[in-house]
Design brief:
mainly beta; 4-stranded antiparallel beta sheet; about 5% helix; WD40_rpt; WD repeat
Length: about 375
C-alpha cells in the first residue's frame, strides 16, 4: 500500500501537488493473492486507515503525531491492529463457495473511546469494535494471578482487586453479524446519518438494517424483474445522504443515478430524482454501454453535490440539476483508442472508486498509471 499527500509539497497558485509519502507492506513483485488489498477507508477524523484484503483480513493503520522538525508534513501511518474479519464459507444449498475477500469497510462515527466499523464480503456483514486496553486487574479473591481457581475454604480475607498498568493492547471483537439477506454479491454498505441504521446493496436489491438487529432487514429497493430475461440493468453502488437520513442514492450499470426519499414509501421503487447525461449519438459505439456504467457514487460532505465514476470520467452533479453534470473530468482518455484490446482481456470491466477531500474542493479517483 502506497500513500501520497499534499502536505509539505507546495505548488503554484491553488494547484494541488501530490508527492510520495510512504509504503506499507512488501515491495516484491511476488505477492500472494490473499495479500492483495481490496478496499481502503479512512475514519472520519483521518487518524485511522482501515484496509481489507482478499484473504479476509482487516489491517488498521494509525497516524502518528506530526513531527515538530517538519511542521508542514503529515504524520505517517503505522500498524495499529490486524484481525481476521471473514473466513471462506460454502453455501451447501446453492453449491456456491463464498470468498473471504473484503468488499467494503465503513467506519461508524466515534461516540466513545472505542471505534466501530462495518466490514463485508459477498454475503455477510460484520460490526467490529476496536478498543484499547492498557490496564489489567490483579488481586482477585477466587483465582490466583495465573488464572487458576482458589479453594473457597482456604480464603481467610477479602481483598479489593486493583488495576495495574500493562503494555497497550488493541482488541478487535465482533459485536454483530448480519447475514442471509442477500441473494447476490454485496457491492455497497453505507452508514446513515442517524447513526442507528445502514444500508447494504447487491446487484438487484438494497436492504435497510438497524445496527442492533441482526435477524431481519427491510428491503427498500428491488429492481429484480418477474422474468430475469427482461433484466436490463443492475445496481452498482449506493450511499446515504450525509445529513438527511431519509435520502439515499444508487447508481446503475446503464450510467444512471436515482435519488430516493424513504418518506414517500416503504419501498423506494419510484425515485424522486433521476440523473442522466444524454449520450451524443455520433460518439456511440459497441463499448458505450460498458464504459458508461457507474462504478461508484459519493455525496459531498455538504450534501449539495454528488460525484460519480465511470470507466473514462468523473462527473460532479448538483442535486438541484438532473439534466447534466456541472463538471466532467476525463480520466484514461488515452485508453479510448484501445477499448477493443481492453475488452478482449476483460480490463474494460474493472471498477474504480472516487472520493471527495475533506473540504469538498477537490475530487480523488483511482486510475491506471502509464509506465
Amino acid at each position: 500500500m502506497a500513500g501520497a499527500g499534499g502536505g509539505g509539497c507546495p505548488a503554484g497558485g491553488n494547484d494541488l501537488q501530490w508527492c510520495f509519502s510512504q509504503v506499507k507492506g512488501a515491495v516484491d513483485e511476488d505477492v500472494a493473492e490473499a495479500d492483495v488489498i481490496s478496499t481502503v477507508e479512512f475514519s472520519h477524523s483521518g487518524d485511522l486507515l482501515a484496509t481489507g484484503d482478499k484473504g479476509g483480513r482487516v489491517v488498521i493503520f494509525q497516524r502518528e503525531q506530526e513531527n515538530k522538525s517538519r511542521p508542514h508534513s503529515r504524520g505517517e501511518y503505522n500498524v495499529y491492529s490486524t484481525f481476521q474479519s471473514h473466513e471462506p464459507e460454502f453455501d451447501y444449498l446453492k453449491s456456491l463457495e463464498i470468498e473471504e475477500k473484503i468488499n467494503k469497510i465503513r467506519w461508524l462515527p466515534q461516540q466513545s473511546a472505542a471505534h466501530f466499523l462495518l466490514s463485508t464480503n459477498d454475503k455477510t456483514i460484520k460490526l467490529w469494535k476496536i478498543s484499547e486496553r492498557d490496564k489489567r486487574a490483579e488481586g482477585y479473591n477466587l483465582k490466583d494471578e495465573d488464572g487458576r481457581l482458589r479453594d473457597p475454604f482456604r480464603i481467610t480475607a477479602l481483598r479489593v482487586p486493583i488495576l495495574k498498568p500493562m503494555d497497550l493492547m488493541v482488541e478487535a471483537s465482533p459485536r454483530r453479524i448480519f447475514a442471509n439477506a442477500h441473494t447476490y454479491h454485496i457491492n455497497s454498505i453505507s452508514v446513515n446519518s442517524d447513526h442507528e441504521t445502514y444500508l447494504s446493496a447487491d446487484d438487484l436489491r438494497i436492504n435497510l438494517w438497524h445496527l442492533e438487529i441482526t435477524d431481519r432487514s427491510f428491503n427498500i429497493v428491488d429492481i429484480k424483474p418477474a422474468n430475469m430475461e427482461e433484466l436490463t440493468e443492475v445496481i452498482t453502488a449506493a450511499e446515504f445522504h450525509p445529513h438527511q437520513c431519509n435520502v439515499l442514492v444508487y447508481s446503475s450499470s446503464k450510467g444512471t443515478i436515482r435519488l430516493c426519499d424513504m418518506r414517500s414509501s416503504a419501498l423506494c421503487d419510484r425515485h424522486s430524482k433521476f440523473f442522466e447525461e444524454p449520450e451524443d449519438p455520433s460518439s456511440r459505439s459497441f463499448f458505450s454501454e460498458i464504459i458508461s456504467s457507474v462504478s461508484d457514487v459519493k455525496f459531498s460532505h455538504s450534501g449539495r453535490y454528488m460525484m460519480t465514476r465511470d470507466y473514462l470520467s468523473v462527473k460532479v452533479w448538483d442535486l438541484n440539476m438532473e439534466s447534466r453534470p456541472v463538471e466532467t473530468h476525463q480520466v484514461h482518455e488515452y485508453l479510448r483508442s484501445k477499448l477493443c484490446s481492453l475488452y478482449e482481456n476483460d480490463c474494460i470491466f474493472d471498477k474504480f472508486e472516487c472520493c471527495w477531500n475533506g473540504s469538498d474542493r477537490t475530487v480523488e479517483r483511482v486510475q491506471y498509471f502509464k509506465l
